[in-house]
Predict the structure.
Amino acid sequence: MRTPAGLAGAAVVALMLVLAVVGPPIWGDRAELIDPVAALSGASAAHPLGTDNLGRDILARVLVATRMSLLLAVLATAIGAAIGVVLGTLPSVLPRRPARLVTAAVNALVAFPGLLLAMFTAVVAGLGARGAVLGIGVAVAPGFARLTQTLAASVAAADYVAAARLLGVSRTRIVTRHVLPNIAEPLILNLTTMIGGSLLGLAGMSFLGLGVQPPGYDWGRLLFDGFARIYVNPVVALGPALMVVLAGVGFNLLGEALARTASRAEVHRAVPAVPPPPADEDGRHDDEAVLEVRNLTVTFPGGVTPVREVSLTVRPGEIVGVVGESGSGKSLTAYAVGGLVPHPGVVGGGPVLLCGQDVHALPEEQRRKVLGTRLAMVFQDPMASLNPALKVGGQLAEVATVHQRAGRADAWRRAVDRLGHVRITDPERRARQHPHEFSGGMRQRAVIAMGLMGAPRLIIADEPTTGLDVTVQKEILRLLREVTEESQAGTLFISHDIAVVGALCDTVVVMYAGRVVEELPADRLAAAAHPYTRALVASVPDMTTDRSLPLASIPGRQPGPAEVGEGCAFAGRCPLATSRCVAERPPLEEHGKAHRVACWEVS
């Protein structure tokens, strides 16, 4: 909103609202005053925009018409939004065949010229302000319906909606409770732009004689009245035309500024608003660490805290594995480090130090530069990281052009070099291909190469081998180890497979219900102290496992983020749990060299 366009749009809209409120009381009498002597006069000191055929002051009528023009635009927008929301959400409520018919009808209406649709509706509904409002409302509804349908489809595919359907929740309740609340923000933001479009449409309808009829008037009607004299006295049409353009541009600028502000707020809301506390109780930091996180917390509205006071350290050339069941907070911890926690999540607690800099305390521009050059993210699904419509080489080169200000030729050469560095054969040819032409393993290598386009000091790999076959998994893991050793970057490896973590990593951080319950060297996993870690290790079969017995498993389930009590979260599944475990949470304490554990029953 601090951009020139945003400020200009806000100022124009504010001016229009003020005129709509004060215009009729101040200039209403002057706008209706008939003066036959001054009829059809041009611009003068007494009448800056001239007079009409009854001698009424055009400037006063333009100012008074602000209320009528804005009121009709708001009504038309409300009608269009109501129709659009209904049409856009119907495919989520109706069975498949009727839903397709509604979608086809919306597509046909979107393709139909809006002005013709508005004129047809106005003629059917009757000439006048009511018909024009209804016509413009019907004309803007298809576009709003398309937007609603697109947003609703993205939400309808979410897991929580599928769970609601599985539980037998009615379609109508799914739409009102799960779909509409999650798409309300972009729809509301779009209304501001729609008001500008409705304003222009209503002015056009009145100018064509299909809108406001005498003795009523809006800007379009005043423009219609003055058009016959435009070649003799152009100034008589200048006032209403200028107000129509000014108001339309103002609402559009404001709507675009609000949309940009909302999209940026999704990123900024994750940044803590208060200075973080020191890393340790004595305020010291590990100067050699690539990444140092202390007491990291991620919260969502309603008291949901999926990450609770997580502390970890990654040093150069070290691979730290974060392991735990699904829902333990592993990936969200990594997202908090990279500033990718989705709205409305809020990151709090201690500092997140990347190469000694607290990335969450940096200004936005500097934070983007630091994360873009010193941090490499390797996600679980490479197709979600690579744009399927763009060539792989161009996407890698973009990293160098954006963050390193490299020229296009240099960036392309570096992209080809990085693809070859991760052992993709014929990198020059592969760089000119699209992601769908790569195999799953090659796409994951390309994502790693994208991270290496800069000079990353930290690599975050979020389950990078999920969905790959065993031989390709082995190649990707070997590549991560080689890249870490060669670049001396630190790697944070997220996984639910404790066997993979034990084979690849130097240090293992075990998370449960959002907290770190144990941290130990990977070569000492067999001697883990926490019951949860021991259960994870025991659940992985090896060549000596007795196949006549059932596979080891952990009974019960992990508590949700909103279900964690005051005591140890694992107490309900732990065979060693006591009343103290249920009532009091154990702290994470030293348990030998480079080994920490949070358990009351560990001596």
Remarks:
- The longest strand covers residues 304-314.
- DSSP finds 20 helices and 13 strands in the chain.
